[in-house]
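hey so u asked for the seq, here:
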Amino acid sequence: MKKIISASLLATTCLGLGARVAYADETNLTITNESAWELHIPMSQTLNQASSNIGELYISGSIEPLKEIAVEATHEGVFKRVDHTDVLAFSLLENATDFTGTTISEAGVSGEEKHPLTISIETADFNAAKAGTYQATLVFTATLQNVSSTK
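ran it, structure tokens below
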């Protein structure tokens, strides 16, 4: 009799385990890390020669794939003498070429792509300039955009 009850309990237990329903579902997790970057430009400074390296332009941070940062440099092209109408023409150069801007890719971010900038004034104009303080302003504008399809 004990064997029959034990076999009966064992059968009931096995059937009970088999009758349990397991249900599985999944949860998807996503992390979105937005582009975060900073434009580094040459600092304000006093120049004392016709051609002066003023520093580097670069981007640090991280941008999303298929994005790039377009940087534009604008200026009036002249130093203006303070409290006077005299001007002194100059060029903004990168590697002896006029610099108006650049595009920095995802790979160039984090300071890996640097653009050395120079202010160049014709030596004769620099030497002929009247005494006084001359000032100019460079404006750098940076925009995150989709990678250009024309590359």
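The longest strand covers residues 51-62. Residues 83 and 133 are 9 Å apart (CA to CA).
lmk if thats what u needed
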